[in-house]
Batch of 3 targets.
Target 1
Amino acid sequence: MFGLRAPEISTGHTGSYYAASVNRKTDYPRLEGDHTADVVVVGGGFTGANLALELAERGMDVALVEAHRIGWGASGRNGGQIIGGLGHDPERFVKTIGEEGVKAIYGMGLEGREIIAERVERYGIECDLKWGYCDVALKPRHMKQFAEWRDFEKQIGNPHTYRLLDRDELKHYVNSDRYLGGLYNDGNGHIHPLNLCIGEAAALEQLGGRIFEQSKVTDIEYGARTVIRTEQGSISAKRVVLAGNAYMGGLVPKLATRVLPSCSSVIGTEPLSEEMAREILPGDVAVCDPRTALDYFRLSGDNRLLFGGLSNYTGLEPRDLHGVMRKKLAAVYPQLADVRIDFAWSGWIGIGINRMPQLGHLSDNVSYIQAYSGHGVCPTHIMARITAEMLAGDPRRFDIMASIRHMPFPGGKLLRRPGLALGMAYYKLLDAL
Ligand SMILES: Cc1cc2nc3c(=O)[nH]c(=O)nc-3n(C[C@H](O)[C@H](O)[C@H](O)COP(=O)(O)OP(=O)(O)OC[C@H]3O[C@@H](n4cnc5c(N)ncnc54)[C@H](O)[C@@H]3O)c2cc1C
């Protein structure tokens, strides 16, 4: 069932529903010749585009350099689920960041959805933004976990509504016999991620930011001014931020050993009738189950069911992607077992060993942001904001994140994937119990 097929690497977008339904195709120039800028951001996903936009909003001279197209990486391929929070269990780092640091991270975790809402509103970005989300339970212990999550969100001051739902109540939001109940909240939601990312880049351009596509950075010359080079051009900058995440390859070996590209996949059905769409997801919410290799799904703006799953530390997608994903979908909605599948695609999630975003400095003027470990739509927006604060002279929030240590994955280049695949198999086994 599993064959050797890595997520598509090309200059166009992957064959996703999102790429087929963009508001506009981007066509920014390649980087050619020698340029200067105050800040260069490498990587045109949510992290890079938002960081560049934050800086342009502060009046800074910024250039964004993307190897493929804006949103080509995980940001333009994901499940589109807006999920609050930042990383996992910041309490683990209390010795390093103190109680105030832990509190600050919980505070940041509430900001992502606000930043997205603000971007959509201020720049008029059409990206099918909708609020409403359900965690769904497959085991009785999940319901217990959800009650704890709800109480915890209250405790940290989350202002949104959290409601525990029994099996029948859940059916008003997610109408599947598979689930025992769920946890609804109106703070999370869903979007067309590629249209959001392209809209954010367009806002950057409007504010005078320069954008280069199809311009892969192949070399970094560190110095008083750092120079990044592509095949046909270069930019010399006072500050550089690397935001290539799981797709950055070996450009900076130290960063590559700390982020593991893990493969996740999504299918998009044909547009469903209005009746069928309301039957399966009456609440039009985004949905996730709490397993390690979870199912996540939602309706698109044109009533397709976008159904995602798999989490594969080998970084490879199953050869029979349609078949594997159709089986998962049918387990949730048997009435859709024979639905036409119009799209199937995969992408790389940047996993970090301790599941906290990785921020830091490689030199006096080169910094990086990477590794959101699965949930990045909100955290990318938050990390971009705090990095912009740092570059504009207020490093307090950046420094909290940067003081968390991130170890490389053990096993070196050859053994870290098999080692982690084994670890994943163990967690999948626990999920099945
Ligand atoms: C299938 C899938 C489903 C997901 N679902 C969700 C979800 O529903 N909700 C959620 O919160 N998160 C989800 N995620 C995770 C989320 O998409 C990511 O955490 C987030 O998009 C990361 O954004 P980024 O900008 O850091 O990286 P990316 O979006 O991957 O962007 C990095 C960019 O850098 C560019 N780049 C790399 N190297 C270079 C170089 N040398 N020169 C120039 N450019 C370079 C790449 O081409 C790429 O475009 C999902 C991820 C995947 C793959």
Target 2
Amino acid sequence: MSDPVRIGVVGTGFMGRQHVEFIRRAPNADLAAVADPQASDGAFGCPTYADARAMLGAESLDAVIIASPNALHVETAIDCLSEGVAVLLEKPIAVNYAESLRLVAAVERLNGRLLVGHHRRHHPAVAAARTALVDGEIGQLVGINGIWSARKEERYFTDTPWHRQSGAGVMLINLVHDLDLLRYLCGEVSSVQAITSSHIRGHEVEDTAVVNLRFTSGALGSFLASDAAVSPWGWDQSTEDTADFPFLPDGVAYQLVGTSGALSVPNLARYSYAAGVPADWHSPLSRAYLPAAGHSSFHAQLAHFIEVVRGAEPLVSAEDASRTLALVEASARAAERHQTVDVAEFRAEHQGA
Ligand SMILES: NC(=O)c1ccc[n+]([C@@H]2O[C@H](COP(=O)([O-])OP(=O)(O)OC[C@H]3O[C@@H](n4cnc5c(N)ncnc54)[C@H](O)[C@@H]3O)[C@@H](O)[C@H]2O)c1
């Protein structure tokens, strides 16, 4: 058996502390050090540094998990990759698409090993949904409807001012996960329309957004994201991924409709017609739940990251996550300009810059 992977964690706030716990519970990983200007010495039972550079200079690490504010992601990741250290970088990969391209180029140049923390892709329900779609279990995909809505506590914004400022907002913090997963499940998006609002919280960043999507397959989609409204609907309430969000069984984040059936995710309820019954609206629909083994994205993500440290291809590469960020940013532009935005044109504009 190989030696445990020595991991440093950069940023020990809300998400970084969870990564510390995941590492502690993993059989083949050791928490070697943490870096955070706010962390007190020895708080995590390992050496503590004020920032990532100090940690990289003093420790011999195999890998670093970066869970610092979004604006620091690219610089810190490049510092780690330059030292030959593998990186699990929290989402979003960067605060904007142009910046993410800098990291994509650095990964290539340095032959770096980097996984982006779109943890939901590691959830067993996602693998099962993807297989069902590929196997044509709902026929041809016609459309999707999705929601992520939860009312964040005031403290989330007052204790952590960057959550109120440009570079955060429900689109970059939350919708980015959903758009990533929809790309993964339904394929690339060709164009977007969007409207946003900040009228409930009145912050610099939006608290609510609605995005319409046209997939390259021809399927259409619509998504509502809000951090100001109470709801039982959304990935975080519908899975046991994060202990901080009470779990409601049989929850729905996405409804996918096809020419011969429908599927909701992550509860994996599949609606279909019995064999021999005409597939039209007069026939009774039956519901069956697809099986999925296991229920945790984060533990699976860490297990996969350890494989990436040892040379495996990442499930979510920098280039892949950068495409997701382009989609979020194209949606923001669509809202700002009241226009339909062509996603390939948006990306080409930046790549040529
Ligand atoms: N995957 C998910 O579901 C998920 C959930 C929440 C947050 N996140 C991501 O995790 C990251 C952190 O978010 P959070 O909610 O934990 O924020 P947070 O503000 O609670 O934590 C950020 C931490 O980074 C520290 N920090 C600031 N400057 C630093 C520096 N130069 N070097 C090292 N540490 C520094 C802060 O002191 C703080 O402890 C963000 O990128 C966010 O998008 C991901």
Target 3
Amino acid sequence: MPSIGNISFENPLLLGPMAGVTDSAFRTICRQEGAAGSYTEMVSAKALLYQDKKSRQLLFISPEEHPCGVQIFGSEPEVCAQAAQLALEISGADFVDINMGCPMPKITGNGEGSALMRNISQAEKLIRAVRQAVQVPLTVKFRKGYEADEDTCVEFGRMAQACGVDAVCVHGRTRQQMYAGKSDLDAVLRVKEALSIPVIASGDMFTPEDAQRALQGGADFVMVARGAQGDPQVFRRMKRALEGLPPEKEPTLSEKIALMDKHIALMCQRKGESRAMSEARKHILWYLKGVRGAKPFKLEFSHVNTLAEFRALCQKMEQQLG
Ligand SMILES: Cc1cc2nc3c(=O)[nH]c(=O)nc-3n(C[C@H](O)[C@H](O)[C@H](O)COP(=O)(O)O)c2cc1C
């Protein structure tokens, strides 16, 4: 069984952190479908120390999600160290991950996220401060590099390892690429070759073949992010392939609807119906991607306000398309 520090995972498939997507309900569903572990959405270290209510809400982890990591981002070592302790206290997370890969200008503009790849001495101070502050396993997530032509991930990974982290996650795109273009698996695997700690491969993990390629290349874990949007069953397909089992039949429309219903109902239970339903719309549209004949229903789904409305519309769609 693959492990990070003292945490063993059932398989090498992790659900990656996605702000605005991987809340507790979604993580729970992905875990049930075969993900061995997950992360919270990223939480600002500074906001957490200022007692920001929204940041604290992001830290809710339900008992069935473990192992789950809490992901923090920031630029100041002391703030991040204190925030990591507080985040662990609030969430009961199993490990801490530091985000050094976020490419969003509002984050990098503050010297946070992937901006730390450009300021390796600050990144080192920050990792060391968090390492000293927490006893649980610590991981760092970063990218191939910063600018388009930069490939600094091996150097960055070596620095992180020397600071005592238990694993690193590398997204094979540069900050400049954001989420476009192809992710460079070779760069991720070069980090693996250079380090002795586990390496989690991130970037373009959509199919069982993608996962197998990364694992056969030496990665210890595979992180699935966009591939799980509207398709938590991606984990089931990947897991079967890794176990050498033949692929299952494509899920029917009724099965798809049943999974979506379970997910949206859990969101309502955990966040309250009003907030959950406004956040659920994007998930519903992802679930319906590629469903033949669903187009006319998408507009209606994008206006649903209650769980009852959602369920009535699902029933109508199933009757017409099923
Ligand atoms: C909507 C969205 C939100 C994301 N939020 C985070 C985040 O909060 N923390 C993080 O480390 N990465 C975040 N990521 C990056 C993913 O975890 C992952 O590394 C990246 O999408 C590459 O994987 P993929 O090509 O399989 O999607 C986010 C990605 C997306 C698409």
